Amino acid sequence: MNHTLALENVSSYLKELQDRLCAGLSKTDDSGIQFHEDAWTQEKGDGRTRILRNGNVFEQAGVNFSHVHGSALPTAASARHPELAGSPFQAMGVSLVVHPQNPFVPTSHMNVRFFCAETAGAPIWWFGGGFDLTPTYGFVADAIHWHRTAQAACIPFGKDLYPQFKKACDEYFYLKHRDEQRGVGGLFFDDHTEGGFDHAFALTRSIGDHYLPAYLPIVANHCNQPFSPEHREFQLYRRGRYVEFNLVYDRGTLFGLQSSGRTESILMSLPPRVAWHYDYQPQPGTPEATLIQDFLKPRNWLAEQLPSEPIKSS
């Protein structure tokens, strides 16, 4: 692997992916509101933070590109790779978090990233990322479509990858202090070098490229669905779980803060409005109870039967 060329190729793809993601989300929002770009440069890196707020469909959508470097690996990474402690490193990636206006449209997250550390021998590198879905109200058709698209992203690279990445996603996006999944899962992979650089990079591109086909049909299916103030309040309550995970467990957040990354960009994943209610318990038999009982647990969505009116394709 040509180290310099690899970094250039990955950076070029990630910036192009950021452009496509913003274009797709803007078109879906259909408000005329454009993503505001905050291009930033600091001693340890640079990036492009893009935010769309108060649109027709999206209350907030953030799509970040960042490229950071340092003289020593942060704890969030070196704890899993003690052999690289103290090594100079570079990390780049695109991260996306969408918080919709309508409670029936799920929150979603996507991230693809590349990491490279300098050692006495050859550079150590890997890819990581994935995407996951966090509904406020659960719909079987949404979850099936999401996971079928996730599987399609992985199939060309090995039939065992989707179940492996799906299991890793269920394990990672889990709030231990709540004994609760964050959502209905998706894909999660890290430290991925399988098949060499070209193969691993192609897989990472496939996952990044499948995000919009996975998410936008779900948005279209629910963005005009009527909702009440009670639905909105439950959405704000469920967003609290999202905040808890990102601030307590998320490795990307911790890595960014520990590597002296740009705080505003790192925390763009947090929703603009959120609520907590002490000891909230949904009424049995309600859609709110169904979310917690039926959707916030690991589940083989590919084995589920589609409802009579499946999600529309884009």
Question: Which characteristics define this entry?
Answer:
two-stranded antiparallel ribbon, 314 residues, 9 strands, 39% helix, alpha+beta, single chain
Using only CA atoms, what is the Rg? 19 Å
**If you average the pLDDT, what whole number results?**
92
Name the overall outline. Answer: globular
Looking across the biggest beta sheet, what order are the strands in? 1-2-3-4-5-6-9
What is the H-and-E element order? HEEEHEEEHHEEEHHHHHH
Could you tell me how far the N terminus lies from the C terminus, measured between alpha carbons in angstroms?
Answer: 38 Å
Helix % is 25-40%
How does the major sheet shape up?
7 strands, antiparallel
Bin the strand percentage: 15-25%
Spans of 5+ residues with little confidence (pLDDT < 50)?
Answer: none
How many helical elements?
A: 10
Structural class: alpha+beta
